[in-house]
Structures are given as C-alpha cells and as structure tokens.
Recover the amino acids of this structure.
C-alpha cells in the first residue's frame, strides 16, 4: 500500500553498520556492513574498531540500501536510528548520520530503542505484532524477556540475565574449545553431531526460589570450562561435539522454559524470539516443541533479521510514523544505557506538539 | 564544520566572506550540538541547506569520538545533497586563524598528556605532518617558536610563547578552504587523521547492550 510510511532505519549499536528501508510492514532493503572479521582476533567486539568501521561504511551503506529498495530519498516519510542501548561511540556515528540525513532531506527523525526494534522486526516477517507480544531477545549483548502491549509506547521488562548474555556464553565456550569467534554458529554446527544428554551441565536460576524470568549463564560457563579443563588435565580427549551439544542444551532449555512460562503466566498466546542467538537451530526447534505443547504460536524472524540490522530500526520507525508518535529533535543524543522501557526518544519541546514542530523546521529546510 | 577540538563549530561562507558562524565549547556534547549549530547558522544567514555547493570538514587530528561526529555529518550531508565534501587538517584551520607571518607551531590537546601538533612556515603553509607526542619529547623542536592552540596553552614549559586562538573556528576553516578552492588545490579525503592505533581492548561486557 503506497500510503504506508516509507522509512529508512540506521543501526550502529555494535559491530554491524545496518541500513534498512521498509514501507509499513514490508521489507524493501536490508543493507549491512559488518566489521566482525576485524574483531575476530581479539575474541570480542573492540569499540574503537567498531566506531572506525561505522564511519567508513555509513554513507556507502545508506546509498546501497536506497538502490536496493529502488526508492528516492526524497520520498521517505522519516529517518529512524538506534539511539541506544549499545556502544556509545558506535551509536554516536549512526545518530549523527541520521540527524544529518533527516535534516538535509527535511524529514522527521526518530531515535528508537534497539531492543524494541529487535521485537518490531518480526512485523516484516509475520505481519503486525499481536498485542501484547511476549518477546525473548537473546544475543551476544542481551538476554531479556519483554512484554510489549504497544511496541511504540509500552515495553515492560519481565526478566533479564543477571550476569552474561546467552551469546556471550557461546563465545566464551567456543574460546575455551579453541573454535574461534563468534562462537554461536560453530557450536550450533558441532552440537548437531553430539549428544545433548552426554553431560549434565547446570541450569542457572532454575530452582523453586529463584526469580522466575531472570537468567544466569555465568555458572554454566564456569562449569563447562572446568569440565573441559579436568578432561585435559587427565590427559583425556575432550569430546568437543558432546560438550557443544550439552552446553547448548543447557542454555536453550532454560531460555525456552522461562519464556513459555512467562507467556502462560501472563496469558499471552504468542512468543516472539529475536536477537542473534535466535539463529540457533536447537533454540528454534525446542521453542517450537514447547510452544506447541503449551498452545502458543511461535514467531521467529529469519536469521538475517534476528541479528543486528537496519531493517528492524526502520520497522519500528515506520510504526512510530503510523501511530503518530512525536519525532525526536536535533539535539537527540546517543544513550548507551537507554532503558528498555523507552521505545523511542521523543523531542523536548513540550507535549504532543513535537511531531508538528519537527515537521515545521523540516519543511523549511529543503525540497519544500 | 569542525569537531576535532572542544569547540563545536559551524559556519557558512559565500566564497568571499563568512556569512554566519556558531561556535560552542563543550568537549563532551559534539553529537548533540553540531546539528543545532548548523541549523542556527543557516537560519541566521536566511539560507537553506540545499543552497550549499560544498561541505568543508576538519579531519582532525582530535579526540576520535567527537571528531567522527563532524565527519559523518559532513559526508552524510554531501551524499544527501549531491555536493562534494572537502577535508581540511584542523591544525591548518587554527594556523590560518592565527594569521602569523613567521614560523610557528600549532598544538591542540590530545589528552593522555599528549598534544597534536605541526610546524608552520606561515599561516597558510604547514611544514611538518601532524603528529601526536608528549610535550617534553618535542621541546627542542618547538623551542623559541610562537605556539597557537589549547595544547600550547596547556603546557607552558614546552611552549613558553603560547597564545590563542585556543580552538579552531569553522569560519577560519571555511575561509582557508575557499582560498584553496579558488586556487584549484587538492583537499584531503573526509577521513579522520587518527594518528594512534585503536585501543584493541575488549571490555569485560563487550556488547554492553544488556538492560539493567
Ligand atoms: Zn541486538
């Protein structure tokens, strides 16, 4: 539908420079430049290297996305950008670019929340989000259970990791097993040839008195590392496939059990899973199985939309436009610890009038 | 525009003179202040951004996080407007503003007890590459020369003849670029003069996007 908002989204919260373009809930372009290879030899994302890469990739990635979408920048209805949370210096490159682009084109600017974007991206895959949506976000940076009655205005934290993120645990175990960085894909692959029941690794925060929806992966990580070291110390060969499968099983068992329980407790009949770890095949399979048993519908976007990308930011931006949410102002700053309860960062110029205000300034800029 | 020093500075130049300028010193808020500064300058001049035929940006050297704000803003403007973007060494802008007609030094604050600096024959002619050093290590090379910039003012032992301007102004940068454009000179690519390798340290919580 041509009257749905056409929005360009920019994402630079970590190591992917993403620019996506959507029309309403339709994906038109998803351009990503990743600096992950540069970080690999450090075993993790180096903030300064990520920021340098974002700066160089920014304009080419915007231009690639426009070409891919086959739209003119002048036809855009808004520019959305990840305002946080994320790496401060990396976020700042995207926010500055989005401001400059919106200003030059005379378009409203929407600073949006990275986590809410991870949820909203599913609209591009499975259509409008059910309200409320229960979302499990799992990646190298986040492990959260979120309840979203309205993705543009009301996102509530149900639970989160109290130590490591799930993806971080994959990276660390991969490092102990000398499998390189990032750890997720390689552990997933090896686990397929291993026995998930071979070793009984601990399930964190799963006791009766533990918080129902919080996660902990630090103890699991230590247990796996100790088990591997003990084998090595005894001069025995480490059964890498079994370790990978058993470790992975411990992670996805806890994630899916708690997510399904949250849905049941809250009376929500859909579970959405997003973030880079949502690409894990065992997580998808077990979630499918448990959702079916609990009578829940599972929504997991394709892997490319689960990892950090610009399309998810554009998807949330389009929803902001569609629901007439106030735009951000030109002082918008990158906020590395933007709370998940703020799906976007509206401007400071009074209540409700922000949107019109930005339109007024913008109209006066260009192409009016 | 330039964000390589604590000054967040933007100016509009019409080829013969600076039409409007806005500078604010706030080393930690380049990201918030630059776009409003551009907006103020254009409003004051009564000009819309699409009238601009080229963008001039200081490429540093300067603290990276702030420096990148100016560069990404300039390159994105240029892409959106379809106009060229010209990189100018920030120290050259300071030298030009100093207007000295004798050999001198420009030094800005590189933090970590170091300065970004270069030597100049006169206000328009740099005779050394921009470098980053501890003031004590370059004392001999800069001895007896007048010195301009916050880096010089910060270390009077190394730069006894230190003076202003402290920070670069976009007006001076634009005026210098206008001279170079008229003379058909080349510009630098709009990429930061980093001068230091990135700190290749992975922080403990390396993807710090976990909500508290
Ligand atoms: Zn993410």
């Amino acid at each position: 539908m041509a009257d749905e908002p056409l929005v360009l989204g920019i994402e630079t919260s970590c190591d992917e420079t993403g620019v996506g373009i959507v029309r309403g809930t339709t994906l038109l372009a998803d351009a990503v430049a990743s600096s992950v290879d540069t970080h690999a030899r450090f075993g993790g994302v180096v903030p300064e290297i990520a920021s340098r890469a974002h700066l160089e990739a920014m304009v080419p990635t915007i231009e690639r996305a426009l070409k891919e979408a086959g739209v003119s920048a002048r036809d855009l209805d808004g520019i959305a950008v990840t305002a946080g949370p994320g790496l401060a210096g990396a976020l700042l490159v995207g926010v500055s670019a989005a401001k400059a682009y919106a200003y030059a084109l005379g378009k409203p600017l929407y600073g949006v929340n990275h986590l809410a974007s991870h949820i909203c991206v599913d609209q591009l895959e499975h259509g409008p989000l059910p309200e409320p949506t229960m979302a499990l976000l799992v990646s190298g940076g986040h492990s959260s259970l979120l309840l979203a009655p309205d993705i543009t205005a009301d996102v509530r934290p149900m639970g989160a990791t109290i130590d490591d993120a799930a993806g971080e645990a994959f990276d660390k175990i991969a490092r102990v097993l000398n499998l390189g960085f990032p750890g997720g894909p390689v552990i997933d692959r090896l686990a397929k040839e291993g026995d998930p029941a071979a070793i009984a690794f601990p399930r964190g925060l799963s006791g009766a008195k533990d918080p129902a929806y919080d996660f902990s992966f630090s103890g699991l990580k230590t247990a796996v590392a100790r088990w591997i070291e003990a084998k090595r110390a005894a001069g025995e060969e480490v059964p890498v496939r079994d370790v990978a499968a058993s470790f992975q099983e411990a992670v996805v068992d806890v994630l899916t059990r708690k997510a399904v329980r949250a849905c049941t407790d809250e009376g929500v009949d859909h579970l959405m899973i997003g973030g880079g770890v949502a690409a894990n095949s065992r997580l998808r399979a077990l979630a499918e199985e448990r959702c079916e048993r609990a009578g829940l519908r599972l929504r997991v976007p394709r892997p490319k939309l689960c990892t950090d990308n610009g399309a998810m930011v554009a998807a949330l931006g389009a929803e902001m436009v569609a629901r007439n949410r106030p735009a951000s102002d030109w002082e918008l700053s990158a906020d590395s610890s933007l709370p998940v309860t703020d799906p976007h960062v509206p401007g400071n110029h009074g209540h409700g009038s922000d949107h019109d205000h930005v339109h007024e300034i913008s109209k006066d800029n260009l192409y009016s | 525009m330039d964000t390589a020093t604590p000054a967040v500075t933007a100016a509009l130049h019409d080829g013969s003179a600076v039409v409007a300028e806005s500078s604010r010193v706030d080393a930690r808020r380049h990201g918030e202040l630059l776009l409003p500064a551009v907006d103020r300058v254009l409003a004051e001049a009564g000009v819309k951004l699409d009238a601009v035929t080229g963008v001039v940006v200081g490429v540093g050297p300067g603290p990276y996080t702030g420096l990148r704000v100016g560069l990404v803003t300039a390159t994105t403007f240029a892409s959106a407007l379809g106009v060229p973007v010209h990189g100018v060494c920030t120290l050259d802008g300071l030298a030009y503003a100093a207007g000295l007609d004798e050999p001198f030094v420009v030094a800005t604050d590189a933090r970590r007890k170091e300065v970004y600096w270069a030597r100049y024959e006169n206000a328009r002619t740099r005779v050394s590459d921009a470098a980053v050093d501890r003031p004590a290590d370059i004392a001999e090379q800069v001895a007896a020369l007048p010195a301009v910039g916050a880096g010089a003012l910060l270390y009077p032992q190394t730069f006894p003849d230190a003076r202003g301007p402290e920070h670069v102004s976009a007006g001076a940068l634009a005026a210098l670029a206008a001279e170079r454009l008229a003379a058909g000179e080349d510009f630098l690519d709009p990429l930061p003069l980093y001068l230091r390798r990135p700190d290749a340290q992975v922080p403990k919580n390396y993807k710090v996007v976990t909500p508290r």
Observations:
- Chain A touches chain B through 64 residues (CB under 8 Å).
- The pocket of zinc ion is lined by residues A 114, 118, 139, 141, 275, 308; B 209 (CB under 6 Å).
- The beta strands of chain A are 6-11, 16-23, 26-34, 78-84, 109-113, 133-138, 143-150, 154-160, 270-274, 297-299.
- Chain A is about 45% helix and 15% strand.
